[in-house]
Design a protein that fits this description.
Elements lengths: L29 H8 L6 E8 L3 E8 L2 E6 L11 H12 L1 H7 L5 E6 L8 E3 L6 E8 L2 E2 L2 H11 L6 E5 L9 H4 L7 E3 L7 E10 L2 E11 L20 E2 H7 L1
Parallel strand pairs: 5-12
Antiparallel strand pairs: 1-8, 1-10, 2-3, 2-4, 4-6, 5-9, 6-7, 10-11
Helix pairs in contact: 3-4
């Protein structure tokens, strides 16, 4: 199957030391981690975002067209899984927003929160079914501030900050403390704890911030994929009105 980008839409984010890992997962070095949990130069900042337990999907602008893609880079509508096919439908209903958000050759990557994986979510706003966390061109990322600002202008939901540290005096925060941030229009159902957090580390070069690396921390008692359907079984959907309206 063709990949419109010519490559994968997104790779994998490495783990922090102490993060729960699965088979084949890789991590960052202690020196990198110290820029997050310890003191850091004034030209380094760390941004903390809640980690959402969804399906990584993306929307690209290719030859002026808005195209929905899975993580591997294939067209969402041709995916073998229903929740990925439904992403293409959801994007078509909001195509004008993504057309406003993206420049030619860019893509926005985020979590598609329709189907439950390791957590069941309550999604109160159908627009929050996709939470953007990166805007990319090729393998280059925009900074978190740029993603947030551009998504807000285009009315595309994005992953919010739990914390935003600009300087060493901003404080030192453990992953366990950072994991407590939540947003109001989407949250784990029945009071469940979030999966973890994502850290985005950026460096000031001249008068512009640039992306250095990102890393994730998953809590040790999190059980990934417990709601994923086995062969032939019915998926567990997150609680959302968008899906209910289409089932009516």
């Amino acid at each position: 199957m063709n990949k419109p980008l010519g490559h994968k839409a997104y790779g994998s984010i490495p783990h922090m030391p102490g993060s729960k890992r699965g088979p084949g997962d890789h991590g960052i070095e202690e020196k990198q981690a110290s820029l997050i949990t310890g003191k850091r130069p004034k030209n380094i900042r760390a941004i903390v975002q809640e980690k959402w337990d969804g399906c990584c999907m993306s929307v690209a602008k290719i030859d002026g067209r808005i195209v929905s893609l899975g993580r591997a880079g294939h067209l969402a509508q041709s995916a073998p899984y229903e929740h990925m096919q439904r992403f293409a439908t959801w994007v078509r209903e909001r195509e004008y927003r993504f057309d406003r958000l993206l420049l030619e050759g860019e893509r926005v990557v985020g979590e598609w929160m329709l189907m439950a994986h390791g957590l069941v979510y309550e999604v109160r706003d159908p627009d929050a079914l996709f939470l953007a966390f990166d805007i990319m061109r090729g393998h280059e990322r925009e900074t978190a501030d740029v993603v947030s600002r551009r998504c807000e202008a285009a009315r595309v939901d994005s992953v919010p900050y739990v914390m935003h540290w600009h300087h060493p005096e901003g404080g030192i925060c453990s992953p366990e403390e950072a994991v407590r941030g939540q947003r109001r229009d989407i949250a784990p159902a029945d009071g469940a704890e979030p999966e973890g957090v994502v850290y985005r580390v950026e460096k000031l070069e001249g008068d512009r911030w640039r992306h250095l690396f990102c890393t994730k921390w998953v809590r040790g008692d999190f059980e990934p994929g417990i709601y994923l359907p086995e062969d032939g079984s019915v998926p567990t959907w997150n609680r959302c009105s968008w899906l209910e309206q289409r089932a009516a």
